[in-house]
Write a structure and sequence with these properties.
The complex is a heterotetramer. By secondary structure, chain A is α/β, with parallel strands linked by helices. Chain A is built from 13 helices and nine strands. In chain A, strand 4, helix 4 and strand 5 form a beta-alpha-beta unit. By secondary structure, chain D is α/β, with parallel strands linked by helices. Chain D has one domain: Rossmann fold. The chains are: A alpha/beta, B mainly alpha, C alpha/beta, D alpha/beta.
């Protein structure tokens, strides 16, 4: 259950709208079910009161929306940012992808968001969900009595391994200033690294063969904001959309992960939106882990204007061979 | 690897010092307050350990004459840290069986009213294994 | 669609010995775009070239593939051939079937097969070639020299003597730099002022040279041949055009107790001052931090005594914009701070001084009028200890000193020791050294003279600590040769402090997009072959800003930099390399990745208006490559996430086509 | 029955200023290396987009080697430093996916190192030949 209430955010949004600080609000809107909360631009106080929600299902990272939306609207846009979203926010500012002047950012404390897939796996036939101190009270179409699900059992992977409760960017903060967390987010990568090459290949072949090339990972990724994505560009040599066994298909995930290497803030949106549940974050985190180990700790989006590790160098960098063999011959 | 090289490796590993970094400026010996007491001086430790000439150092009283004041460590322009090398050689000596520099029995003779307790504690730490 | 001609060279038997050239020509005939294919014994010969020209005319060829020796050998030749035939020279690709095929493989079938594949790759590339023309840009025939020390002075004089106007920007109120502070110069011992001040006068009187003293470079825009520079002329509160340098104001100024920078703070100067008698320009400057008139509005004495009416308390900083074709950096060096060297007691005792302070102490125009007297009590020192390598050759560079050898200290220490013994034979002089480095003309002889003729004691060892005690400095040091520790009661200790680049260098490098090493020395375009050029085109390096240097070396480099500048300014137009990067603005995100990897600062960003599909317009930040600055390395093309940046002549699709052709 | 000897397909990207000249020198000195190596000339090793390497693998290359000037000697001052990071990260990722790490390599070869060029190619071809055909990258998304 979130510590900040919907009413607190709503009151603040309405106040900022009415005093003219902002003239629209990027927030979460009630969906058909309690768990399908969708991003929406609210233009008026009435609209907000009607549809605005803040609960355990507000997983969407709004940073990416700013790239397009700030161009399309008049005046300032109010955006709510969870701690992990603020890293993407800074990274996009570093890359000059939107105009900071057009945004009023409110940092919102976050207690972790729910993975709908996990919840659905735990409870079948959900009709409504209520957040309580004990957990999520889930009413189903089958039972009269609601089932209570402990939130820690159904958190998104990125929340289980939350890297930071600290907001690195905001105009105003609601809730307490959090801390950067020493998370175990690289454990899975390390486990894979410890396998033999054959085991790793088997793992990834199994995972990547599931891909239906829907492009959701790219579309949700806040680092993927190119004016013209290479996968859409007929001249790039990698454009194609149909799932065929061609180069583009085989290499899609490598190219995608490489494209965001050094810029990925590890927000976890790719894995969240993947309809095939491919653990895409393990690719991104591999790059982050390698960068941390080889070039020093680097968290993309920690500050605006940081020089990404792949557009930087030192004279003493490891040789590619040394990077490959730094854990021994085959590990 | 022969015994001489093994000893050299051991000293270097234990001290965490790379004597190859020494540019033979002698600032360590220039700064050493126990210089006159020592048969081998700080810069000689760096040079002799590098060349594997460690037996004379082990046999010498110099390892006990070093005050561990770390002035040489502080002032070495190359980060060689001679005191740590001396310390490593001293450890080689006192780790031999029965080679403790002092025992509890020696203490009463050394103590007078002005000897602070701490001095004895650190002497034990330094001269016994 | 291209009409490609393939020309397979035998190179006598060099290629034909291992490659079946006829089979290669035949095989490439069926490649897409190829309309003509032939072989010939020596394609680079006049007959071979004529054959190519004829084939272009007969077959209306648009592109050429030459299967021959390495492009490093004859690419230029065949480009000229193409031009003769009326084609764009960049429509030629070479398949290297000699150095990288026939010469390294032995068997004919293998060599032939590889030659065909290399030919196919070249054909695939030419299919995507486009005509390229090098860009042209005009050259502003004026040079800017930043820094007015001996390096800047020499560079400016050499450029101006060649007939080009030169501006010197100097932050201090006078030009002259460090050399003006020196007493004598090694190894000849002629007096620094005697050889420098005439040059300063030459600069002042040269009709092609303007001096902006007490000024800084505030902004640099543009590129080689076309720099736009803004110079900030700091307010000196004296009208330079009126001041005659008579010095009346200096005598009358009541605020006399300000540390005199020129004498390293060893004596005082008034709030209004002329740094030294031979200053150029010889104009007074008011130290705004010390003047009561400027601080509190009270006094005004200097204005009253100034016969020329030059004092102007209302003067403001002035900004001057000027265009230049070339920029020479000559920002020089400073002595590092001794604050962190507690063991030498620099901050505890006035009698521990740096070598530059020693220069002033022995200089006839210095605080003691050239008499060697201790700063503390004005007594003549009888025992002097010199310590070399103070802060040089330090491993823990970030904290205390510098990792490099400062290069000049050995020689000036020998000079100081020798001169002291010469003038005051009753003085005992000891020099502590780690190594004595004298690799220069007449340098070692000079050092040996100090020892053998003048009786300077050189001790191999280092001073460990110095403790001031009463009137003496207790120096404890090692003597490594005699394996003993020395204890000297010295009257004066002189530290040969390391030198470092001037603090202004780093921000200047950023403005110029010139690269620096970790020590803040400017890096040269090539350490051996282009030692006076910065990698940034049009920016040249002179003197100690590039690395520690003595005066002879500085003057040589200054002359070399000047000759490079003259070579550039002589040109009316600059021809660029046509194989440069270019950004597709429709695809550019404006993310700055390309700018960050560009070693030349060739990329800038523009806010550009775009029409969107829904007929609205949108202003986006997009990258723009300056063709005069880009050298065509291609680092930006890979850094670019969207693929908007591409390299002409080595375009993404061209390289990809080569890969495909090879891997087919 | 005669088994056709397996010949690997090796793509070598060489920078124009050092490694391509080094390859030429190997030719001048008639230092043999297998014809399986096909060189593509690029202005600088930093011109090599990871996409080119992946493309080569996808089109059937069994090994890809990238040669550039030694660190510190880049004609463009810093290009190979970027290459070093880019390729370290790319190759580490391929390794992570289970692709044999011997198939990828970066080697610094100067214009004077003809012998090193030939030796490197001999060594690399041998290492790649030992692995056999490059199936893994192709099969990465084709679980059967």
């Amino acid at each position: 259950m979130q510590k900040i209430t919907r009413e607190q955010l709503l009151d603040r949004a309405v106040a900022l709208l009415s005093d003219g600080t902002v003239n629209s609000v990027l927030g979460w809107q009630k969906g058909e079910f309690d768990y399908d909360v969708t991003p929406h631009i609210f233009k008026s106080a009435d609209e907000l009161k009607e549809g605005f929600v803040w609960n355990d299902f507000c997983y969407a990272n709004f940073s990416k929306y700013l790239v397009l939306k700030t161009d399309r609207i008049e005046g300032k846009l109010l955006v709510f940012l969870k701690p992990c979203d603020t890293y993407s926010f800074n990274q996009l500012l570093t890359e000059h992808r939107f105009d900071r002047e057009k945004v009023y950012a409110i940092g919102v404390g976050c207690e972790g968001m729910v993975d709908v897939n996990k919840l659905k796996a735990a409870v079948d036939g959900i009709s409504s969900i209520e957040a309580t101190e004990e957990g999520l009270k889930v009413t189903t179409i089958y039972d009269d009595e609601p089932t209570v699900v402990a939130i820690e059992n159904v958190l998104l992977e990125r929340c289980v391994n939350c890297k930071s409760k600290k907001h690195v960017a905001y105009d105003e903060l609601m809730g307490e200033e959090g801390e950067i967390i020493d998370s175990a987010r690289f454990d899975e990568v390390a486990a894979l690294e410890a396998m033999t090459a054959d085991e790793r290949f088997a793992f990834w072949q199994n995972e990547l063969s599931k891909c239906i090339r829907c492009n959701a990972c790219r579309d949700a990724c806040p680092a993927c904001t190119c004016e013209n994505c290479v996968f859409n560009n007929p001249n790039s040599g990698v454009e194609t959309k149909a799932p065929v066994t061609s180069f583009e298909e085989q290499m899609f995930h490598i190219i995608r992960a490489y494209h965001v290497a050094g810029r990925c803030t590890d927000c976890g949106e790719c894995s969240r939106v993947c309809p095939q549940n491919i653990p895409l974050h393990l690719l991104n985190r591999k790059f982050i882990k390698d960068i941390n180990e080889c070039y020093g700790d680097y968290q993309a989006g920690e500050e605006v204007g940081m020089r990404a590790p792949l557009v930087d160098y030192t004279l003493e960098d490891l040789e590619p061979g040394e990077v490959l063999n730094r854990r021994g011959e085959d590990a | 690897m022969n015994k001489k090289d093994l000893l050299r490796e051991e000293i270097i590993r234990r001290s965490g010092v790379n004597p190859k970094k020494c540019m033979k400026c002698g600032k360590c010996s220039g700064t050493c307050p126990a210089y006159e007491e020592m048969e081998f001086h700080p810069h000689q430790f760096a040079s002799m350990i590098d060349s594997g000439d460690i037996e004379p150092l082990i046999a010498s009283e110099s390892v006990y004459k070093c005050l561990s004041c770390f002035a040489c460590v502080e002032r070495c322009p190359r980060g060689v840290e001679p005191a740590k090398l001396i310390e490593a050689v001293r450890l080689s000596v006192i780790r031999e069986k029965g080679a403790n520099r002092m025992t509890a029995n020696d203490v009463p003779a050394m103590v007078d009213e002005e000897t602070p307790q701490q001095l004895l504690v650190s002497a034990f730490r330094k001269y016994t294994k | 669609m291209q009409r490609i001609g393939v020309f397979v060279c035998w190179c006598g038997s060099n290629i034909a010995g291992t490659v079946d050239v006829k089979a290669v020509a035949e095989a490439l005939k069926s490649e897409p775009g190829v309309v003509y294919s032939t072989d010939y014994q020596y394609m680079c010969s006049q007959a071979g070239q004529d054959l190519i020209v004829q084939a272009v005319k007969d077959n209306n060829l648009t592109g050429l593939v030459i299967c021959s020796c390495s492009p490093r050998m004859h690419e230029a030749t065949f480009r000229k051939t193409a031009a003769t035939a009326g084609l764009n020279p960049y429509m030629v690709e070479i398949a290297n079937i000699r150095e990288q095929c026939s010469w390294v493989h032995k068997e004919m079938p293998i060599g032939t097969e590889k030659a065909i594949i290399l030919g196919k790759a070249a054909v695939a590339k030419v299919n995507l070639n486009t005509p390229l023309t090098p860009g042209e840009s005009p050259v502003t025939k004026r040079a800017l020299v930043i820094g007015g020390g001996i390096a800047g002075i020499q560079t400016a004089l050499d450029i101006a003597d060649a007939g080009f106007p030169v501006d010197i920007v100097e932050t201090k109120p006078t030009i002259g730099g460090k050399m003006a502070q020196l007493d004598k110069t090694f190894p000849t011992l002629d007096c620094a002022a005697c050889i420098l001040t005439p040059k300063m006068v030459d600069v002042a009187q040269h009709e092609k040279i303007r001096i902006f003293s007490y000024s800084e470079v505030a902004e640099v825009k543009g590129f080689v041949g076309n720099f736009d520079v803004t110079i900030k002329k700091k307010a000196r509160f004296v009208d330079e055009t009126k001041c005659t340098g008579c010095g009346d104001c200096v005598d009358k100024c009541p605020m006399k107790k300000n540390p005199n920078e020129f004498n390293m703070g060893m004596d005082n100067r008034p709030a209004i001052y002329i740094p030294f008698a031979q200053a150029v320009p010889k104009v007074a400057t008011i130290d705004a931090g010390a003047c009561t008139m400027l601080k509190k509005g009270k006094c005004g004495l200097c204005s009253k005594v100034c016969g020329a009416g030059a004092i102007d308390y209302t003067q403001k900083d002035e900004f001057i914009s000027e265009k230049y074709g070339a920029i020479v950096v000559a920002t020089g060096f400073n002595v590092i701070s001794m604050d962190k060297f507690d063991e030498y007691a620099y901050n505890q005792s006035k009698d521990v001084i740096t070598s530059l302070e020693f220069e002033r102490l022995t200089n006839a125009a210095g605080p003691t009028a050239g008499k060697l007297l201790r700063p503390s009590d004005g007594k003549h020192p009888h025992k002097i200890v010199f310590v070399q390598c103070v802060g040089s050759r330090c491993e823990n560079c970030a904290e205390k000193g510098k990792e490099y050898c400062s290069k000049i200290c050995c020689m000036y220490t020998a000079k100081h020791a020798m001169l002291t013994r010469d003038k005051y034979p009753d003085t005992d002089v000891t020099v502590f050294y780690i190594d004595v480095r004298t690799p220069g003309k007449n340098f070692d002889e000079f050092y040996r003279r100090a020892v053998e003729e003048f009786g300077v004691k050189y001790v191999k060892g280092m001073v460990g600590k110095i403790v001031p005690e009463g009137e003496v400095l207790k120096v404890q040091a090692s003597d490594l040769i005699n394996n003993k520790q020395m204890h000297i009661d010295a009257d004066l200790v002189v530290l040969a402090a390391a030198i470092e680049p001037d603090k202004s260098a780093r921000p200047l490098a950023t403005m110029l997009t010139a690269s620096m090493d970790t020590n803040d020395f400017f890096t040269e375009a090539h350490p051996k072959l282009r030692p006076v050029e910065s990698p940034t085109a049009g920016v040249f390096l002179s003197g100690a800003c590039q690395g520690p240097k003595d005066i002879p070396e500085t003057v040589s480099q200054a002359g070399a930099a000047a000759s490079k500048v003259i070579g550039l300014l002589c040109k009316d137009k600059l021809l660029g390399n046509p194989c440069i990067a270019g950004s597709n603005e429709l695809m550019c995100n404006g993310c700055s990745s390309c700018e960050r990897v560009c070693p030349y600062g060739a990329i800038t960003y523009l806010d550009k208006e775009f029409r969107m599909p829904d007929r609205t317009t949108k202003i986006r930040r997009v990258a723009s490559v300056n063709p005069a600055v880009c050298q065509g390395c291609g680092a930006c093309t890979v850094a670019c996430p969207s693929g908007a940046m591409d390299l002409r002549g080595f375009a993404n699709d061209q390289i990809m086509a080569e890969v495909d052709a090879i891997c087919k | 029955m005669q088994v056709k000897e397996y010949k690997p397909l090796i793509v070598a990207f060489c920078c124009n200023w050092c490694s391509y000249a080094g390859a030429d020198l190997a030719g001048n000195n008639r230092l043999n290396y297998p014809a399986d190596v096909k060189i593509i000339r690029v202005p600088c090793s930093c011109r090599v987009n990871p996409m080119f390497i992946l493309r080569a693998f996808q089109r059937g290359a069994d090994g890809v080697i990238l040669c550039g000037c030694h660190p510190g000697d880049c004609h463009y001052t810093s290009g190979n430093y970027y290459t070093r990071r880019r390729m370290a990260m790319l190759f580490s990722m391929l390794d992570y996916l289970g692709i044999e790490r011997e198939r990828t390599r970066v080697e610094w070869v100067s214009a004077a190192e003809g012998a090193k060029f030939a030796a490197t190619m001999n060594e690399f071809v041998e290492a790649v030949s030992a692995l056999g055909e490059n199936k893994r990258l192709e099969d990465l998304r084709c679980k059967r």
